[in-house]
From TrEMBL:
Subunit structure: Monomer.
GO aspect biological process, one term: glycoprotein catabolic process
Protein name stated in the entry: Glycoside hydrolase family 92 protein
Presence of the UniProt keyword Signal in the record: yes
Endpoints of the signal sequence: 1-24
Organism of origin: Flavisolibacter ginsenosidimutans
Domain of life: Bacteria
NCBIfam families hit by this protein: aman2_put (TIGR01180)
Span of domain Glycosyl hydrolase family 92 N-terminal: 33-260
Membrane spanning residue stretches: none
Ranges of residues in domain Glycosyl hydrolase family: 266-742
SUPFAM superfamilies for the chain: Six-hairpin glycosidases (SSF48208)
InterPro entries: 6-hairpin_glycosidase_sf, GH-type_carb-bd, GH92_a_mannosidase_put, GH92_N, Glyco_hydro_92, PNGase
Amino acid sequence: MYTVNAIRFLILGLLFSSQTIVFAQQPSDPVEWVNPLMGTDSKPSLSNGNTYPAIGLPWGMNYWTPQTGAMGNGWQYQYSADKIRGFKQTHQPSPWMNDYGQFAIMPVTRSLKFRQDDRASWFSHKAEIVKPYYYNVYLADADVTTELTTTERAAQFQFTYPKSDSSFLVIDAFDKGSYVKIIPSQNKIIGYSTRYSRGPLSAFRNYFVIYLDKAFSFSSGWRDSTLLKDSLEVTANHSGAIIGFKTSKGEKINVKVASSFISFEQAELNLQREVGKETFATTKQKAKARWNETLGRLMIEGGTEEQTKTFYSCLYRMVQFPQRLYESDKNGNVIHYSPYNGKVEKGYLFGGTGFWDTFRALYPFLNLVYPEVNKEMQQGLVNDYKEGGWLPEWSSPGYADIMIGNNSASVVADAYIKGLRGYDIESLYKAMLHGANNEGPVSAVGRKGVEYYNTLGYVPYDVKIIENAARTLEYAYDDFTIYQLAKALKRPQAEIDLYAKRCQNYRNVFDAQTKLMRGRNKDGSFQSPFNPFKWGDAFTEGNSWHYSWSVFHDIAGLKKLMGGDKAFVAMLDSVFAMPPVFDESYYRSVIHEIREMQVMNMGQYAHGNQPIQHMIYLYNYAGQPWKTQYWAREAMNHLYKPTPDGYCGDEDNGQTSAWYVFSALGFYPVCPATDQYVLGAPLFKKITVSLPGHKKFVISAPANSDVNRYVQDLKLNGKSYDKNWVSHFDLIRGGVLQFTMSNKPNQQRGTTKNAYPYSFSK
């Protein structure tokens, strides 16, 4: 039966369906449908995405953004802000993680203004153009228009100045140790930033070189808040430079910038290799073409204008992280700065992602649509292990001590299970075993509480290890991924059996009385008192109702614990039927994730954070797939918009976007490290996915609409298909998945056990 909320949403859907809807044509220019401001209207107390307008290239080493926040503030661009303080090179994964290696450039006029508050200029979104490949804004106080376009490691600026004998450009290398040098004879500034937020980092510097196409009539360095007369070279806690010139009205000054984590010489090489003598217009055109090539792997038809914008805006976020940290030396060899030993090493490296978020859907999406990129990332993980001794769980760009789990195991296993080859999988498997059986140098690396977990089968509640039930659940799933990879690599049977056994440890924190996951003490008793609505404590950024579904690999086993299919479905329904009550006492305040659940009017369904995002797809495991179809569409319709307040919580390095894009395709990777995607229903009438090897996979649903959201019938390459899942290998061979859609649920399709997706117990 449908809940009261479900019926209300159905009625609203029927009302809206009677209105005129504008359908978008197939986008020949997908990048032009992206709104980089989606999610930027955020603040610490309520996240609508916590994003910033990232101007760069897919998986680029550097991005650029207008900086509205104070120097060092993770909320570097907020839509509600009135002033821009500078244009900053950024590597920031999220405001909570903050940035590293940042520096900024800012034009000013009329007088020498280099301090961030003094140089800040009013701006308006009405005089701002934001594209993934291009940014343009009018700075009112300076009367200067700034334009920006980029490559992977370099950028071009074009500043249009007014008539003035006091025009300037400020370079800010930020605090915590920096250097600048002005070389007027070459119209050049060099410098480096050592600033980082998550560490420690060994011998870290981001070297930059800047060239102007106009001679300097004034040059001076500055230190902290002091202008240094007759000083062209500054090493200080906070270093900067200011250069000046006379300009005529409408005069355009072009600036070329590049950086390197290795050396000034490498920064120069990056600039010459990626920009050279190119004009601003040429770099802009090439950047746009790169975005269209990347986003164009997925071409959609038959959606509304809003849906099309949302889809491509989400896809834009997905292909930003992790960022390339590698560069090419003068001989074309791939090299990188190692955040683990401070040396220049050979090979690939990436940084800026948290696997607690992104193992769920972002990495599975890379394996499906961009496997050649994830192959580089897997090679980078080999280098993480060889240089640092561990796989990262949150790289920013080294080992950040935040979040829980050992989910690098999932990222590694899923890639191999999905067919990626050509890298050192044996070293990665060795790294997985090392991480699974040891505590790391910080609590977020390896497994905190591993001795308890390996002996008791769970991390106890009463041994001063926070988020213990959540750790147990994630370790059990991670053990499943090791089990899967061990089988694929034909490891010894005893080793395979060990991880098969450990992957069942989720059972040890299941409380039969409440039918929920619950913290458990060292003596075997459950924590008491127990409030399933209490956020944190035994769980991570969620409560028991959110984490109790985190048995990705064995939903059949979880169903049996909860009392079978009927009881399981009733528990799923309860998530949407309950009011959004909460207990915030563990945090001593209402954290933003709690508030985001509360205001979304979907009961206890906290889509704004990751632990519950797969839960909608679990109806497929209990014979009621039409409820997945209904709630997936509800979540897409109500929780995502292509607007500054367009997300329902932190976007988180592409994961929340990946949920939307997968769901729009009509399926979702509930259990990475298997080859299955669990079915929902597509959002568009047609989606064409271009795969490596010139193959195409078409998802066709010609009768699709907001009302026709239910799957009546499904055909795979013309043959009737009755499963509630589809295989990765069927998709990558190319073909057609054809959905027959209706306004009424088909309560006969997908109801038998042989239609259910994979479970370890089954």
